[in-house]
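In this supplementary section we document a worked example of the pipeline. Step one takes a protein sequence of length 104 as its only input; no multiple sequence alignment statistics are reported here. Step two produces a three-dimensional model, which step three serialises into structure tokens for compact storage. The input and output of this example are shown verbatim.
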Amino acid sequence: MDRVTIAVSIVRSDRQTVESITTWGVPIGVAQEGLDVLGLFFANLTLKGGPAPVRAYMPRLMDAVLSGNLDPSPIFDMTVGLDGIPDGYKAIDSRKALKVLVKV
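The serialised model returned by step three reads:
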């Protein structure tokens, strides 16, 4: 199940506080499984999204990480060495990891 479908199912159970869903990046699975547009419509939900503007904030974030002012480790859920890169890709592909840190 893709993240948009999961978000819609969660929001439907909490209609008192949520009226819209926002997603960044390409929603994986929607093209294959389809998006329940009528479900969004009848639940009176708004779906917003677009590409993540990485180029807009990447230089500032990289400077902060390299200077030691920002710890990026909380976003990594798997660490591999150079020889473990194929395993890292497999973990991402099978949804066992979202972000893999490669230590050299």
